[in-house]
Write a structure and sequence with these properties.
heterodimer; A: mainly beta; 11-stranded mixed β-sheet; 8-stranded mixed β-sheet; 10% helix; globular; B: mainly alpha; Urease accessory protein UreF; 71% helix
C-alpha cells in the first residue's frame, strides 16, 4: 500500500511496485504479479513475440523529498520482460530536509532476459534524490539496463543526485559505482575529471553469457562515450552529453556499435 | 615501527613506477580541460573525491586486514575501464616488488604468490603499509595524496605549469584530503564488519571514458 508517513517534520510517500515474469510454457511470458501503487502505477503494454512488456506510468509527480519508492522485478528462468516508463521522472524538492530515495531491485534467472529502459531521470533545482539500483543476474541470464540522468530542466541548475548501481552475475560482484552530482555532492563533480559541464550522463549495462567467451573490445564514440568489457560476462556503455536528446542518441549509437552478442540477443 | 615509513612510502621517489602515470591528467590536458592551475585544482578535487576516495578506502581496508581477494574484486567492480584495471594491477605489481625489497616479510611474499598477475595498487598499498608498521589511516592518506599528487606533478611536465602553482593546488586540497582519509578509514572499519560492499564506489565518468581514449592514443607521455 502506498502510504504517507510523517515524522521529524517531514512527510513522504512510500510506494512499492512489483513485477514477476515467468514463461507460460508455450513460448510467451506471463506476469503472475503486476502490482503497482500510488506514484508507481504499472500497465501491461503490447509486447513482442515471447517478451512481455510493462510500462511504469507516473500517476503522481515525484519523487519528492522524503519519498521512498521501491521497484522490484523478478524474471524467472526462460522468461523475457521489457520495462519502460511513460515519461521522464522528475526529482522534485520536498518540504522536509530528508532526501528522496528510489530503489530498484532486479533479479534475472538463468535463460531469462530483462530489458530495463526507463525514460530519463531529471534532477530539478532544489531536489535531493538517492537512486539505488541493484541487479542480480544468474549465470546464463541476460540484461540490458539503461540509466539516463539529466541535471536540471532547461538551463536550470540541478538538485543533488546520487546514483549507485551494482551488478552481480552468478553471485559475483561485477560492477559497483556511484555518481554524485549537484550542490550537495563533494567538490569537483562538475570539473574536468567527472562531468566537465555536461548536463546529461547515462549508461547502458549489458549482461550476456556470450561475453564470458568473447568480451567485447573497448570502443570509443568521440571523446565522451565508451563501451568497455567489465570483469565478468558484462559490458558497460558510458556517455556524457550536453542534454537528454543528445545523450539518448549517443547511447543508441553506442549500442548499435556493439552489434555483437547483446544486439543479437535482442532480436532472438 | 616508525611513522617515518609513511614519508618513504608517499615519496614520489619511492621506486614503484608511479611516475609513469598522470592519473588522467594527460588525457584532460590533451582534451583542453586542464589549462591552468585553477582547472588542475578542479580536476584534482574531482579525482580526490571519486577514485581517490575509493583507493584510500581499499588501502585502509587492506591495512586493517580485510581479505585482499575480496578487496581486489571490489576494486575491479569499481573500475569499469579495462585500461585502468590493467594499469592498477601493473602498479600493484611494481609496488609489491619495491616493497618486498624494502620491508621483507612473509605477508608480502604471500600476497605476491596469491596474485601472480598483480593485485590492484591500493590493495597492495594497504598491505605494504601494514608490513611497514603503519596504521590504516596512514595507508588512506598515502592513497588519497597519491590520487592528486600524480596529476599535479604530471601537469607541470605536460603544460609547463609553474611548480609553485602545482604545489599550491595540493596545499589547498589538504583539508579535503584529510576528510577523504577519515571517511576512508570509517568505511574500511565498516567493511571489516559487514563486507566490502560497505566501501565507497564513487565514480568519475570522464576519467573512465578518457582512460580508454588515452589508451588508444599513440605518442603518449604517460601510461595513463
Amino acid at each position: 500500500m502506498a502510504g504517507v508517513t510523517a515524522g521529524g517534520g517531514t512527510a513522504g510517500v512510500r510506494a512499492h511496485a512489483r513485477i514477476e515474469a515467468r514463461p507460460d510454457g508455450r513460448g510467451s511470458t506471463v506476469l503472475p504479479v503486476l502490482a503497482g501503487e500510488g506514484p508507481l502505477a504499472l500497465r501491461r503494454t503490447r509486447g513482442t513475440a515471447g517478451e512481455a512488456r510493462v510500462t511504469v506510468v507516473g500517476a503522481m509527480s515525484g519523487p519528492l523529498g522524503g519519498d521512498r519508492f521501491l521497484l522490484e522485478a523478478d524474471v524467472a528462468a526462460d522468461a523475457r520482460l521489457g520495462v519502460g516508463s511513460a515519461a521522464a521522472t522528475l526529482a522534485l524538492p520536498g518540504q522536509g530536509k530528508d532526501p528522496a530515495r528510489q530503489e530498484t531491485r532486479l533479479r534475472v534467472a538463468a535463460g531469462a532476459a530483462l530489458r530495463w529502459e526507463p525514460e530519463p531521470l531529471i534532477s530539478v533545482r532544489g531536489s535531493d534524490l538517492e537512486l539505488l539500483t541493484r541487479a542480480e543476474v544468474a549465470e546464463g541470464g541476460r540484461l540490458l539496463l539503461r540509466e539516463e540522468l539529466v541535471l536540471g530542466r532547461h538551463a536550470e541548475p540541478p538538485g543533488t543526485l546520487t546514483s549507485r548501481l551494482t551488478l552481480r552475475v552468478g553471485g559475483r560482484l561485477v560492477l559497483d559505482q556511484e555518481l554524485a552530482c549537484g550542490p550537495g555532492a563533494p567538490g569537483g563533480w562538475d570539473g574536468p575529471a567527472v562531468l566537465a559541464g555536461h548536463r546529461a550522463v547515462g549508461q547502458i549495462l549489458l549482461v550476456d553469457p556470450a561475453f564470458a567467451v568473447r568480451p567485447p573490445p573497448s570502443r570509443l564514440l568521440g571523446q565522451a562515450a565508451s563501451l568497455v568489457a567489465l570483469p565478468g560476462p558484462a559490458a558497460l556503455i558510458t556517455a556524457l552529453a550536453p542534454d537528454a536528446l543528445r545523450l539518448r542518441r549517443l547511447l543508441e549509437e553506442a549500442l548499435r556499435a556493439t552489434a555483437g552478442p547483446a544486439g543479437d540477443a535482442e532480436g532472438g | 615501527m616508525t611513522r617515518a615509513a609513511l614519508l618513504l612510502l608517499a615519496d614520489g621517489r619511492f621506486p614503484a613506477g608511479g611516475h609513469a602515470h598522470s592519473g588522467g591528467a594527460e588525457a584532460a590536458v590533451r582534451a583542453g580541460l586542464i589549462t591552468d592551475a585553477a582547472s588542475l585544482e578542479e580536476f584534482c578535487r574531482g579525482r580526490l573525491h571519486t577514485s581517490g576516495l575509493v583507493a584510500a578506502s581499499l588501502a585502509a581496508a587492506a591495512a586493517l586486514g580485510v581479505d585482499p581477494g575480496d578487496l581486489d574484486a571490489a576494486a575491479d567492480a569499481r573500475t569499469p575501464s579495462p585500461a585502468l584495471r590493467a594499469a592498477a594491477r601493473r602498479l600493484g605489481r611494481q609496488l609489491l616488488r619495491a616493497a618486498r625489497a624494502t620491508w621483507p616479510c612473509a605477508g608480502l611474499d604471500l600476497l605476491a604468490r596469491r596474485f601472480p598477475k598483480g593485485a590492484h595498487q591500493p590493495v597492495v598499498l594497504g598491505a605494504v603499509a601494514q608490513a611497514a608498521g603503519l596504521e590504516p589511516l596512514d595507508a588512506a592518506y598515502c592513497a588519497a595524496y597519491e590520487s592528486v599528487g600524480g596529476p599535479a606533478t604530471a601537469t607541470v611536465r605536460l603544460l609547463g605549469l609553474d611548480p609553485f602553482d602545482a604545489t599550491g593546488v595540493l596545499a589547498r586540497l589538504a583539508p579535503a584530503t584529510d576528510r577523504v582519509a577519515d571517511r576512508a578509514v570509517r568505511a574500511a572499519r565498516e567493511a571489516l564488519d559487514t563486507g566490502v560492499d560497505a566501501l565507497p564506489a564513487a565514480s568519475a565518468p570522464l576519467l573512465e571514458i578518457s582512460a580508454e581514449v588515452h589508451a588508444a592514443r599513440t605518442g603518449r607521455l604517460f601510461a595513463t
